[in-house]
Amino acid sequence: MTYARPLDLADDGLPAPRRHLAVAVLLMALILVVLDAAIANVALPSIAASLGAHPGDTVWVVSSYQLAVLVALLPCGALGEIYGPRRVFLIGVTVFTLASAACAIATSLPMLVGARFVQGLGAGAIMALAAMNLRFAVPERMLGSIIGFNTMAVAISSAAGPGVAGAILSLASWPWLFAVNIPIGIVVLACGGFLGHLGGVRRRFNLAALAANTLMFLLFFAGADRIAEAPVGGAALIAGSALCLFALLRLERDTSTPIVPTDLLAEPGFRIAAIGSVVCFTGQMLGFVAIPFYLQHTMGMSPALAGLHMMAWPAATIIIAPVSGRLADRIKTAWLCAIGGGLMAAGLLIAGLAPADPKAILFVLGMVLAGGGFGLFQTPNNRILLLSAPKARSGAAGAMQGTARLTGQTMGSIAMSVIFALAPLSIAPNLALVLAGVCAAVAAVISLSRARYEAS
């Protein structure tokens, strides 16, 4: 089965200027949740000192948020289709904003970790339904460009996260990292009426499937967390996660709109794009974790200088992502993804294999290639994940997009943990960068195989 290129439909999407305001609301909410995932790392030492917690335990301030997002994405996509994407999206914003307030007033680490988990549930709803709301707000002929700007906004937020956190912490204490979300969340809620009002398609929500989905990600996350220090136990937990997936698929085998969107995955274009996304984000996370170690331990840079060199990747993504969105209107997305994955692979392999250079010229060149390739890959790949699904299943498509990203990043973290456990620090970052390059190359080949399903 093929999927067609977007048609120029004059009556598609919301009228201007409401359309522009709706896109601004969606981008504001996405930037909020991406920033919140990126800023907490910087504050962990301050949180440990303030709450009298062990530094190792504070990692759960970050992990609980990531786990909750994983747990929430697929169910929230289904709920958005049932009750309407705007309603569930704005409920997610409300939960996120209230949980941010709870984080800001937390007086103990367990209270903060619990509030962060609830915050992640709200973020999962936002991530899952942003795509569905976007698709109904924007004409399909403009979606390529808008998705490009969306990718650019997410890249800017990810890159700016540590800097924003540092700026806030230089002026105030760590609770303000979460308190600043409150007025932004209120603005998003106040402007939520600009989003399209769409009724859902009422159907039964399978609570047994919800339980299986939740347990699946809990076991997967727990296994990933333990795989390096306790390989047998970690592998057993991941195997348990696989059994939960099997049970989930069995529970929904007769459902036309399952939580895990097997109906969408049955379409070759969607399936290949999802697999390519998982593999690409595995490489991205391997690279992102390895690069600071490479710069500081192999190259001997200070943390500040290392951070400056790392900016080459997001800077290239920011430049290329909008261009890629426009190119996707004219060129087969499979070709763009293949070229992007190839450039990303080349950049990571240059960084991992090139001899150490005091001026880091080859490293910066590699980061520019990798970041540009990543932007060139992600925009058209996200476009296919969104547009190859029927509009009524846009919630599942958006949720699958987020799940593929987080699954890939978790797999990258697992691979990095194993590399650190097996290889000395002197060579581990280089090995990780080479493996990241291999992942990007595999993603390019996978994407190229999608060309035959794409209309010219």
TrEMBL record:
The chain crosses the membrane at residues 21-44, 64-82, 89-111, 117-134, 146-168, 174-195, 207-224, 230-251, 272-295, 301-321, 333-354, 360-377, 406-425, 431-449. It holds the Pfam family MFS_1. GO terms for cellular component: membrane. Residues 22-455 form the Major facilitator superfamily (MFS) profile domain. The keyword Membrane applies. It is found in: Membrane. CDD domains: MFS_MMR_MDR_like (cd17321). This is DHA2 family multidrug resistance protein-like MFS transporter. It comes from Hoeflea marina.
